[in-house]
Amino acid sequence: MAAVAAKRIKRVAAGQRGFVPLNRTREQNSSRIGKRKRVNKNKKKNWNKYSDIQDVEDFLDDVRLQEKATGGLLSEKPDDSLFFVDTGDQKKVTQEVPVTKRGKSSKPLRVDLILQHDSLVPSPKDILAHQQPNAKKLRRISQRIEKQVAKGLQLRRQKQLQRRKAGGATSPSEKSLPDDDPSRPFYDIWGQEEMLSGDAFYLEQTKKKPVKRPDRLNEKPSSLPAVEIIAPGGSYNPDFFDHQALLLEAHMVEEKKQKEALKLAQQLAVRKEDIATEETVFQEQVEGLVEEDDEEEDELKGEEEPKGSAPAVGRGKKTERQRKREKAEKEKEKKRRAQRELVDQRQQLFQLRSIRAELKGREQRTRQKQALYQAQKEAQKFLPQRLGKLKFQAPDLEVQLSDELSGSLRTLKPEGSILKDRFKSLQKRNMIEPRERAKFVRRNKLKYVEKRAFKAIT
Question: Distance between terminal CA atoms of the chain?
Fold first, then answer.
């Protein structure tokens, strides 16, 4: 039975593609393999499936092995590095091996040998370490400078430095120039002379005086703390009255939401007067079918004009007596107004106390308005501002009912999300604007296509 099984295994193995026995010649191998399968290689899917690239893989594996063992191809190595002449006269150089106290040689551990780098292939070059920002621009500038130096020309920067040195003392107008102005005075920080300690530009350039931080960067957008402490009633084992106070607060919030929803529903509801009835429907149907009487219009048009009316007569020219009388009346009215103004001024002398009291009251009202404005301004620091098109929506209060209290940390169930809590805290402290989840909008419409297999079935 064993011999029969062995023969069957050999016969199956010999029938497999690629099996080449050691005792057969090349001609026998080619006849044993048989005809190759004819495949259409015009199609891309058959390239890798029926292309034999084993010789290329073997060549690449051999190249990798040579690079790993010798650091390059053996064909490119010089003979001196591969061979040496053994004359037998040279003494063998013994490698020094560390010896322990007992006289035995200490070999490196297997763990250390595994971690050692045994490949001679150099590590890949880090391209990012050699890259520089604006390298092309800096290279062009350096090339232009080299050409100018080769021609014997003086650079513009050097001319400016020499002009600064030759200028000597600077005027106050030069000290007021901006930092990036090339015409600023030149300071030699390595010179022996001591510069004035009060020069702000010199102190900033020598790092002895830090740049002033803008005051607006020190202002916080909100006075709220980063982490708000929950009310005492939100504890896992709260006091009865604290828990009831928190429940009342949550109840007021829910009641306010219900009132807003009811108000919105009432505004959107249809009024009873706007509901169509049988009478209004009938009136709409017969509209325009019945001719209306125009008797009222005829009566209005045929009204007679009132009797005894006489045409208006234009006014004639005024007489001399009438003009004198009008002039005398105007002078009397002018004198009467002057007399009244004089009386009012005299009366104001006796109203100094009342005027003073009125001014004091006005100043007090102004101070009250200013105090109210400051109080509102301080209160605004604790409120979320409108930073975008959306308003800040306060999160729901995390409160448990009386029958949901656990009383122990072991049986306490976690509620809420730390990520959402921090996100809402940033919005409430005016650090980011309120946001909502972006809606998915499909740009291109879906195109439904029936496959060939589905068409064949249908």
Answer: 56
Give the C-alpha distances (Å, rounded to integers) separating 457 from 369, 447, 449, 453, 454.
Answer: 84, 21, 15, 7, 5
- Over the Cα atoms of the chain, what is R_g? 52
Question: CB-based contacts of 230: which residues, under 8 Å, 6+ apart?
Answer: 398
Return the number of other C-beta atoms located less than 10 Å from residue 32's C-beta.
13
Q: Distance between CA atoms of 429 and 226, rounded to whole angstroms?
A: 8
Token pair 């084993």 is found at: 54
Residue keyed to tokens 């070999």: 107
Distance (Å, whole) CA 187 – CA 195 = 8
CB atoms within 10 A of CB 430: 18
Tokens of 430: 């005016």
The C-alpha atoms of residue 302 and residue 296 are separated, in whole angstroms, by: 10
91: Cα separation from own chain's centroid:
74
Which residues lie closer than 8 Å to 203 by C-beta, 6 or more apart?
Answer: 197, 209
202 touches 196 (CB < 8 A): yes
Question: What local confidence, expressed as pLDDT, does residue 310 receive?
Answer: 43
What are 320-342's pLDDT values in tens digits?
999 999 999 999 999 999 999 99
CA 149 to chain CA mean position, Å: 48
Question: According to the model, what pLDDT value does residue 259 have?
Answer: 95
Alpha-helical regions (H) of 85-176: 110-115, 127-130, 135-151, 156-167, 172-175
Q: Which residue has the higher pLDDT, 190 or 232?
A: 232
Q: Which amino acid is at 384?
A: P
pLDDT tens column, 255-303: 999 999 999 999 998 888 888 888 888 888 888 776 555 555 555 555 5
Tokens of 380: 């605004």
Q: How many CA atoms lie within 13 A of 343 on its CB side?
A: 6
> For position 412, what pLDDT does the model report?
85
> Whole-prediction pTM value?
0.40
pLDDT value of residue 235: 87
Q: Are 434 and 387 a contacting pair, CB within 8 Å?
A: yes
Helix (H) or strand (E) segment spanning residue 203: helix 200-205
At 13-35, the pLDDT tens digits run 444 444 444 444 444 444 445 56
**What pLDDT was estimated at residue 19?**
40
Whole-angstrom Cα distance, residue 333 to residue 337?
6
Return the closest-CA partner of residue 185 out of 199, 170, 196. Answer: 170
